[in-house]
Specification:
Layout: H1 2-25, H2 31-61, H3 64-104, H4 112-144
Length: 145
């Protein structure tokens, strides 16, 4: 079973390296090329999500003695996946800003600091939502006890 997990790890490493490379190229491209690359990265991110699900299922099948090590590796991969998704989101925002600026002209956009502030607030909101959900789960578990 751990050999399947290790094969998934290799696939994960390959896919994330490709995605990282493509995310870095998105802001530098234009037109159809950029649109195709965004769609391609979106598809690859979905593949990584499916791969993470497979890894999670594999970890559940591993004997309890060895499971902790694999769970911690999986947790770090999930963190890496979240970072990739945030980077992709940022590159897509830069992509949509470029398109808007092409259509409206350079002076029609909002400032970079406002965009950064909006991204920070969005991340805070997502973290708060996760904390609320975790608190709710704890409350439900406490009621069951």
């Amino acid at each position: 079973m751990s050999s399947d997990f290790e094969a998934y790890e290799q696939d994960f490493g390959t896919l994330t390296a490709e995605i990282t490379n493509k995310i870095g190229r998105i802001p530098k491209l234009g037109g159809k090329e950029k649109t195709q690359l965004v769609l391609n990265v979106d598809k690859q991110l979905e593949e990584v999500r499916e791969l993470m699900e497979q890894m999670d299922l594999e970890v559940r099948e591993i004997p309890i003695q060895s499971r902790g090590m694999y769970q911690s590796r999986l947790k770090s991969y999930k963190g890496e996946m979240e970072k990739l998704e945030k980077d992709f989101k940022r590159s897509r925002i830069a992509y949509s800003d470029d398109v808007r600026n092409e259509l409206l002209g350079e002076d029609a956009g909002s400032s970079e600091s406002q965009r950064a502030h909006l991204l920070d607030n969005t991340e805070k909101l997502e973290r708060s939502s996760r904390r609320l959900e975790a608190g709710y789960q704890i409350a439900v578990e406490t009621e069951r006890s």
